[in-house]
Every structure is written in C-alpha cells, then in structure tokens.
Amino acid sequence: TICKMRWVAVVSVAMVFGGTVASQESPMAGPPTGWAHGWDTAADAWWGYGAMGGALFTDSQLTFVAKTYKIVVLSLCPVGLNVTTIGGVAQVAARLKAIQPAIKILFYHNVDQFPCYSPTDPAVIAFEAHPEWWLKDDNGNVVTPKGLDFTNEKAVEFWLSIPTNAVGAFDVIDGVLADGIVPMSRPNMSAARLAALTTGKYEMAGRLNSIFNTANGGLVVANGMTGGPIDPTDPMNLRALNATGGIENEHFGVFEQVNHQTGGLNMDVTAANLAALEQAGLVANGSKIVAFNAWPGPIIGFDTNVSSPGHGLPTFAPNDPDNKPPTTGTQAQIYAWWRAQLEKYLPFNLAAFLTIAGPGTYFTQMVWYASFQGFVPCPEAPDTCMGPTPWYPMMSQPLGAPQGPRVQLGPYKWRRTFAHAIVTLDLAEPLGPGTAIQWGTTSV
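The structure assignment produced for this chain is given below.
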C-alpha cells in the first residue's frame, strides 16, 4: 500500500560528508501515478533486471517475477529463438501483465549499440543498411564500435521506433532503460562536436520519454549516474533527469568506488554517490524514478580467464580480506558461494539504500545481469542459479514510512528512522556493527 503521508524532504545543497549541510523543507508530490512504491516492507521497492539468453522465462519464473518486483527491466539474447529482441520481450511482458497488471516493465534499449541482437533482427538490418546514420569522427572515419550519430534526425527516429515496433507494445511495455545516457567521449572529435552529440543524445532520450508518457504514462530511465564519462560540472550526471523520467545508479560500492588493491571503499566517492542518489530523488518535486543497483561486495572487474570456473563473474581486489571467490569447484559450488555473498552483503546494501530512499527510489541486488545471477531463485534446481532460497526474509520485515531524512552521525555514518525500524549505515564498517538495521523499534 502506497503511504499517503505528506512527504517532506530535506534538500541538501552541500556534500553530506563535508560537515555542514544547508537544507530547505519542501512538500514532495512524488512519482507519477503507478510508479511510487509503498513502505510496508523493503520488498515494496524491489526493482529487477532480467536478462534472458536463449530462453524465455518459465511459468514459475514469471509468477515469481510478477509477484516480487514493482518494476522490471527486460532484455533478450534470442539465440535459437524465432523472435526478435523486442518481440520476445513483448511476449514476456504480456505474460507478466496477465499475472500482475500493475507491474511496470521497461525494455533495455542501448542508445547506439545492439548487444545480443540477432544479425537477422530488423533493427540490425536497418542500421547496417544506413551508413549515413553511423557515427563518424571529424576525419570522416566510422567510429568503432559502430554507433548512432545523434545529430542525424533519421538516425534518431530509427532509435525511437525500436521499442514500439512490436504489435501492442504500448499495452505491455511501460518505457525503456536507456543505457548510455552519459556525456560523449570519442577520439578525434572536437569539443564542440562532442557537446552537440551529447545534447542530441539527451534530447533523443527526452523524446522517447515524451512518447511513452503520452501513450501510456510510461517513462525512460537513463543509465546513468555512475560508471560513464564524467562532466566535472555534473559528476553524477543529474542532467539526464532534465530529459528523462528517471535515472539508474549502476555502480554503488563497486568499481571506481573501491580501492583496487585492498578492496576497501573509497568512502568520499561512495558518500558523494549517496548524496547524489538522495538529490536525484528530490528532483522535479520528487517525481523522478531512481534505481539503486547493489552487488555482492566491492567488485572491481570480471574474470576474463576462459579456463577459470569463474569466467565472466565479478572479481575482487587481490588483498580484499573478506571476499575470495572459489578458483576451483563445480558450478553448483560456485553458484552457492555467490548466493552466500548476496546474503552477506544484503544488510549493508539495504541499509545504504534505505538511508536515502524516497517513494520513487528502487532497490535491486544481483551478482550481475543475467537472470540466473540473482534475479530469480531456483529452489527446484539450486545448482542452476545464484538466487537465494528462501528469498531474502529481511526484505519482508515490517518497515513503515520514513520519519524524516537521514541524520549524519559522523564523516561517513548516518542514521534514519522508519515507523518500524532504525537503519544505521557506516561506510567504514560495511560488514561490521556500525552498519545495522534494527527491526521492530524506533528507539535509538
């Protein structure tokens, strides 16, 4: 049940770890109809990412997804399937809507690439047939890998058409996760050209946001806030929210936020990320969707050794004392280790999320994006996936509405009180006693 309380937020205008925070109270209208989550439990704020490869979801997986996630992003690598990427996603979306009509479904849509598309997909064929759409550098050379020229109107119209090509798309798809909505950075291009391309890309995302909003109240979520090229004047890319209905924060507590030797958090960077997440939830009177992606520990990269049992899975810093993935073992043993990692890091990830969450801020936690990597459980065949069984009991604990914004207790430590819980986050102790969720109490 969506909380009917009058949402009052503190708008921070200084870095929260700097010691002094100026603030202003303002009533928050919240996200558009159907896009806000409730506060009964943390599970009300689940956002999920289901990357399907070579098979569509089974009936049991569809039922789980429809009953678990408020918003779900779908992508498809249709290897061996007689469907297009958008066609297969639309099929799955229709089945999810039949189970849970209120679920919001976003189509994964890269801004200028076609990852996992079949070479016979009409979108790929059209793109390859129009070299005038391809991005070229200032010397006229095609940029590698190929991408769209966002200053070419026909190229933009082509990109806008892809999510709506499936029959009845607006009936079952509520928008897109637009990957790559970040400042342009390419070699052999002038600053003026890069600026024009960046503007064109953001405007393109904004046009698609308007198309979905008009058609079915849908929206575009931009990826994103972390991990891409950085504009020093807007380091967390909040500019994207001027064009779109939401933003995804893909890299909380991982990659650039981690010391690549020790595995410790770069706490200034992580704290700035939390401040930006909090700020994003307040933009446009609190009407934007903010996606908080969390992971099973401070990962720094991926295993590229094709002979390794962990090939393709995340890796940790060499001197990280808390995270040592198995280097040998069966698939079942490796998957079991990652299931344990997800459970180990949920208290920290969830505490971080809850300290900054608004009614449009959503949470997910996975090993990575493939559906077997934590999107769904597999109790009948536990050696085939990394999703825990039982499914995160902590997420179903009574939570209740926040009683106000987070309160800073130290340079990297905050507390926030909810109707039925107290959440404390300490970036210096992600797995220690400084980070904790006290359920069933509001007394410090």
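Interim note for the steering committee: DSSP finds nine helices and 16 strands in the chain. The chain has a mean pLDDT of 92.
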